[in-house]
Amino acid sequence: MSPTSPRVPLSVLDLAPRSQGMTPREAIEESTLLAQEAEALGYRRFWMAEHHGSDTFMSSATALLLGHMAQHTSHIRLGSGGVMLPNHSSLMVAEYYGTLATLYGDRFDLGLGRAPGTDPMTAAALARTSGQLHDFAAEVTALHDYLGMPRAGSRVRAIPGEGTGVPLWVLGSSTGGAQVAAALGLPFSFASHFAPDQLREALLVYRSRFNADAETAQVERPTVMAGVNVLVAPTQAEADRLFTTAQLMAIRIRSGQPAPLDPPVDDLASVVPEQLLGLAQAHQAVRAVGTPESVVTALEGFVQDHDLDELIVTTYTYDPVLRRRSYQLLAQAWGL
């Protein structure tokens, strides 16, 4: 990407995170303020990810939250980042998102994943299908059909939903999701913000196998969005310190001790046992943390390295005001 090339669109991924001392309602109210801010700043999408059984994230009932966000915004695209299909009937998902589209118009994206979005015991309580590739592809195809125009003789219909054509995205963190997105001719969003290891391989699979002629195809060419952990502050030192909240969150989740977001610390090693420090590295893989200028440089390099069409960024701070400030600084520096 040359300095004069237009930058790709930026979108926001949110899980309604809750900080220590914050009630679930307050966490959702803060996410509502963030959606309004994202709209005012010019971000393309505001997506919310389904997550269950966590004291950290309040985004389990994603469709309900997106309806709430639609009531408090006017035009930003809203979507699931994503709905975890093993937990749901494809018919019910079509009805939920078809209802949203019926109420609020063409403002919704339906991002679809096959991970459970929770711990194994909660997943067992939620699970409806296996999440295997063939089951997942079949469910995505069914959703496409439910949201399309009704077919003659069809006895199972999503009402409201049919005819709304809510756009579908396949989400993934491996080559599995890339295969499904390619075979069905759908846009692909890669979870490089938490699982970057197979990014290059997955994008190669997706682009080389993309079938624009699939009956389910919704884009004419491979279309890729990728996730990045971002934290922008006036100085590098402040950004690094604020980012320790996200690192502590990663340590808690990966060590089986989820909790509301911790305040930032001056030295991670002073509060985390040495044997757990390595768990924070997973949260450092695809990230851009620093001043507006340094973050823009990092994001531009990431876009160029992987030939991306869009970035979706996620930010965690203990103080939600500083989370909004981060998105403000990024929008200004990116030229939204």
Automatic annotation (TrEMBL):
Residues 17-302 form the Luciferase-like domain. It comes from the Bacteria. InterPro entries: Bact_Lucif_Oxidored, CmoO-like, Luciferase-like_dom, Luciferase-like_sf. It holds the Pfam family Bac_luciferase. One of its GO terms (molecular function) is oxidoreductase activity, acting on paired donors, with incorporation or reduction of molecular oxygen. To bacterial alkanal monooxygenase alpha and beta chains. NCBIfam families: oxido_grp_1. This is Luciferase family oxidoreductase, group 1.
